[in-house]
Amino acid sequence: MKKFRKVLDGLTTSSPVNVGGVPLCSSAAGTPTAAPTPRDIEVAETLVSENFQICKTVRHGFPYQPTALAFDPVQKILAIGSRTGGLRILGRPGVDCYCQHESGAAVLQLQFLINEGALVTACADDTLHLWNLRQKRPAILHSLKFNRECITFCHLPFQSKWLYVGTERGNTHIVNVESFVLSGYVIMWNKAIELSTKTHPGPVVHLSDCPRDEGKLLIGFESGTVVQWDLRTKKADFRIYYDEAIHSVSWHHEGKQFMCSHSDGSLTTWNLRNTSRPFQVVFPHGKAQRDGRKPESCKPILKVEYKTSKRVC
Description:
Blueprint: H1 2-14, E1 24-26, E2 32-34, E3 66-72, E4 77-82, E5 86-90, E6 96-100, E7 107-113, E8 118-123, E9 127-132, E10 139-145, E11 151-155, E12 162-167, E13 172-176, E14 181-187, H2 189-192, E15 204-210, E16 213-221, E17 225-230, E18 235-241, E19 246-251, E20 257-262, E21 267-271, E22 280-282
Antiparallel strand pairs: 1-2, 3-4, 4-5, 5-6, 7-8, 8-9, 9-10, 11-12, 12-13, 13-14, 15-16, 16-17, 17-18, 19-20, 20-21, 21-22
Keywords: Exocytosis
Protein name: Syntaxin binding protein 5L
Family: Belongs to the WD repeat L(2)GL family.
């Protein structure tokens, strides 16, 4: 502190000051003149637009334009995909991460490897990505590109190493999650439906394994055809033909029946004991006709989930 005071004293004594306290300086003629004050000094501005850059410091709220959603019920992690290729990972307080696919393609579907810290994303550029979530910054471990077919649906059974991928051509491919390569086992659409049927069933819109037997794969086609395929015998157990397009399918937890949502706003329930016709047909949003006729068609039901609950008396 003493050294600092000596420096200040040296500065004040080196510059002449008049009686009023204003610093003085000598002119060319030798007469002292008043020194310019800080307000009179013009500072040359050296900052240009290149010195500034906009960057995000915080993300708030639900992701913009969400297209896919997945949840890990064990680790309590929520994954949200967006139309611009963004991936948002949300968990317990403090767990919030954002990642971006380099291609920028929309995320069509998300599949968690339950309780394994991994996630599979299917994008609109027909590429599958395997993400590693067991690190501070999630990263892509493997990628698999479909060149000849467009991906429409994916299904990964619980604790299974096989990922089922449906395509626009109606075929179902099987991917090994560990090596992330195609297994070579392909369920062709013309083998899944009856050979006598010449019309194409449309893209695969649903894939799921039977709750009672993981060796049975349920395949739903857009045209309204549903096939249960035996992965061991490589044959169809049964085929269902309905005259309304299918949007989604959901199993009952016992594995004895399943429900389909259709383009005319109807829900059909099918029992495995008799697959010749639906066990029940309801129009939850349609107006009931007084004469008992079929209710008027309404907007399609895009998603159905078969849930059960215990009634508390």
